[in-house]
Automatic annotation (TrEMBL), chains A, B:
It is found in: Lysosome. It catalyses: Cleavage of a -Pro-|-Xaa bond to release a C-terminal amino acid. This is Lysosomal Pro-X carboxypeptidase. PANTHER family: LYSOSOMAL PRO-X CARBOXYPEPTIDASE (PTHR11010:SF38), PROTEASE S28 PRO-X CARBOXYPEPTIDASE-RELATED (PTHR11010). The gene is AUGUSTUS-3.0.2_06303. The keyword Lipoprotein does not apply. One of its GO terms (cellular component) is lysosome. It comes from Tribolium castaneum (Red flour beetle). Transmembrane segments: none annotated. It is an enzyme of class 3 (hydrolase). It comes from the Eukaryota. Its EC number is 3.4.16.2.
Length: 478, 478
């Protein structure tokens, strides 16, 4: 059973290409009790190049990773900031990047890591927004942006704190994953591989699990496989084999998530349409038995593991080493419990959802008993969000996380935009000449909604003149 | 400076006249961190006499006191439950009544009392509602009710957890008191006394402060005053005099709050229109100097202190002894910081608002530094609540707390109902033959809104048939 599927991984570090200043803001460790007064520094990135001091604030609600990664992969905010005269801010999520409440000790015990919850993160953002408002003479409208878990946070920020943000662009935000049938996620992944080239591709993957298990049964097989897949540490135990299976499975998922139409370096340096490239290579290989299948897979996986041709060997426990993942592992064990399973009909090895086993693994790792797995649904309302307002949920149908996304309009102002051929929050990325028309349309939809929310803000605050100015500017500029 | 004005006091214990079972529900001590798994038992009262298992739940969000007191003084819920086939529930607020997380130690240190926050209380209610829902086969609509701080909680419950409650009746809920000019509260109290009989009454009260101070300067004066006002412990120090002034001032406020048109025992056993009775007696007295004024006041105060003619002497530190007040004192020091002051123009002794002094008194008492006094405004949005829905705010204009109330419609479904001659949440009380027409109209307004919310609930859940049944029943019964 997969313990948790990481929403976003950051294994590679880009050279940053957007401009911003790095700043820090002191936040309370615990916003919801008065048992202590501890504080820590939350990192945020800020760019005021386009800001006119009375323009809106574009606020990215950081998710599970170093905030620079989100800034670098959310070019959309920079692209549209000039036409809105907007201040651009990316806030780091507590317990990720540099925003560690207890420094290196942040993960050592429940009394340290226990404050890693979405509610506390939202309260951090509210306080930071309140501080940013002091940069203007009068209150300005704030738009929340976020992708993946960051998109969940953006939508929840609007739901819980509508006085702080006038609206939210929630891209690929699986807020309903808690209640989605556990098999849906891997079904979508399978569909991505089915539609990439031909059905042969997922069929070969389906066969690969048995092949891998057969081969890795014997010590010789383990040695052969370690060599064939260029592992840094040879497989020795059956636990190593499980790690390998998990690593391989995660790469298949990740390639679907970042199956963008142009070369990116979001999760790993990748060619355009990596799934298509992977499947083309795999289906063209001469496969006659388990070994030739596994060998062909190993070669094809290099599209993900070694696109830059600089990787000398594969670290199959790589993901577990990255600090950001420790935090997400904790969150997946406590609040973000999203049931997932593989069944007959998808291309993955069968793997049932077993909450008891999941919970006991979590307890072993963190010493925390989650006695209220219904917590996120009660806290954020589950599927009953019709009382919310001013949220755009965007989803690519080829994004596995669309299985937990809001795919239909919920109300007049809680609306959905679908990108049929889109991967994981592609709409938040900067414009690219290879963007499909559907992505461009989704971005226009975002811009139209942001305009509407800003106009509403000025209308309600009775600033007719400014409202007219905004209106004019936008019509003229876009 | 008054440290805090208690919203509701319970000095007298009624013989309970409504039927309910007393139950307990286990809740998490801390809903917003995973630092510990501690739980405690929250008390609630439940009456299912009128419930049909698919009827709605009427849920009172308990405030600062033993929950039975709220049940006894919220007869409106019992009055209308039969026509809605409703389950009636009163939930106790954590740290009041029997719902003490650490028993008798609940108030001893920040690490004990620190979990007394409105956010934690709301999360308790959400969990209890979730549990109550399991009593029905299918989800039923829940209506939140509350008066005073309980009304604030009811409205916040709807704002923060709209999936848990379909709407809220928030009676005399001063959710804007945090941002109200500090003098407004005592201005309203003064108006109540002005309109009771004649302007002479507040003028005499205005003079009384100097009279009390003059008399109590000397030891002989203190002795005379102790005797004249029948104090249990004679005044000895200047601190005792301050306590007396505070006690007298609080009675004046309390009489305004419960200035009901019929005899009640909410804060103390009282005649109908206690302020009128008090002012009539005071203005008819033969007042020629400080002593005769103070003597006349002492006599008139017996309307509040000794209406039952069973009080042998007055305990002027009475309010500080009641357990419920310890909790409210803490809340007033941490979250519920509502600036209050008396100025020229009201009938009280001048008393400026000094947050620094207030905060240092709070720190001395609780060892807690409130570094974020803006907390409640950020947490609940302050005056920006137009994104909320399905809340009725009712306010009596002769209720001092109306100074912080929502007195105008905010949106189509966040609406205000004014009871011009109403005192503190009179509309939540059971029907009385002496109810003025305005109170009856306010209650009808509540019923109409509750019906609308329930119909919306069934409409959205696609249960047309049930929706029709509800509609028919209500039209027929009301």
């Amino acid at each position: 059973m997969k313990l948790s599927v990481t929403l976003v991984l950051f294994l590679c570090h880009n050279i940053w290409s957007y401009d911003y200043e790095t700043k820090y803001f002191e936040v309370l460790l615990d916003h919801f009790s008065f048992t202590n007064n501890a504080t820590f520094k939350l990192k945020y990135l800020i760019n005021d190049t386009f800001w006119t001091n009375d323009g809106p604030i574009f606020f990215y609600t950081g998710n599970e990773g170093t905030v620079e990664n989100f800034a670098e992969n959310t070019g959309f905010m920079f692209d549209i900031a000039p036409s809105f005269n907007a201040l651009v801010v990316f806030a780091e999520h507590r317990y990720y990047g540099e925003s560690l409440p207890f420094g290196n000790d942040s993960f050592v015990s429940p009394s340290h890591i226990g404050y890693l919850t979405s509610s506390q993160a939202l309260a951090d953002f509210v306080d930071l927004i309140n501080y940013l408002q002091t940069m203007s003479l009068e209150k300005v409208p704030v738009i929340a942006f976020g992708g993946s878990y960051g998109g969940m946070l953006a939508s929840w920020l609007r739901m819980k704190y509508p006085a702080s943000v006038v609206g939210a662009i929630a891209a690929s935000a699986p807020i309903w994953q808690f209640e989605t049938p556990c098999e849906d996620f891997y079904k979508v992944v399978t569909r991505v591989y089915q539609e990439a080239v031909a059905k042969d591709c997922p069929l070969l993957i389906t066969k690969s699990w048995t092949a891998l298990r057969n081969i890795s049964e014997s010590p010789e097989g383990k040695a052969w496989l370690s060599d064939a897949w260029q592992l840094c540490s040879p497989l020795e135990t059956s636990a190593d084999v499980e790690t390998l299976i998990g690593w391989y499975s995660e790469i298949l998922v990740n390639m679907a998530m970042v199956n963008y139409p142009y070369s990116t370096s979001f999760l790993a340096p990748l060619p355009p349409f990596p799934v298509k490239t992977f499947c083309s290579q795999l289906t063209q290989a001469n496969i006659v038995d388990d070994k030739s299948l596994v060998m062909a897979l190993g070669d094809a996986l290099q599209i993900y593991t070694n696109f830059t041709e600089t990787t000398t060997c594969n670290k199959i426990n790589q993901t577990a080493e990255a600090l950001g993942e420790e935090g997400w592992y904790f969150q997946a064990c406590t609040e973000m419990i999203m049931p997932m399973c593989s069944i007959d009909g998808d291309m993955f090895e069968n793997d049932p959802w077993d909450y008891g086993k999941y919970a006991s693994q979590c307890f072993e790792k963190w010493g925390v008993n989650q006695t209220h797995p219904e917590l996120p649904v009660l806290e954020y309302g589950g599927k009953e969000i019709k009382a919310a307002s001013n949220i755009v949920f965007s989803n690519g149908l080829l994004d596995p996380w669309s299985s937990g996304g809001v795919l239909k309009n919920v109300s007049e102002s809680v609306v959905s935009v679908i990108i049929p051929d889109g991967a994981h929050h592609i709409d938040l990325r900067g414009g690219n000449k290879d963007d499909p028309e559907t992505v461009i349309e989704a971005r226009q939809f975002h811009v139209d909604n942001i305009k509407k929310w800003i106009m509403e803000f000025y209308f309600h605050s009775g600033k007719g003149a400014f409202f007219e100015k905004i209106k004019y500017q936008h019509v003229a500029r876009n």
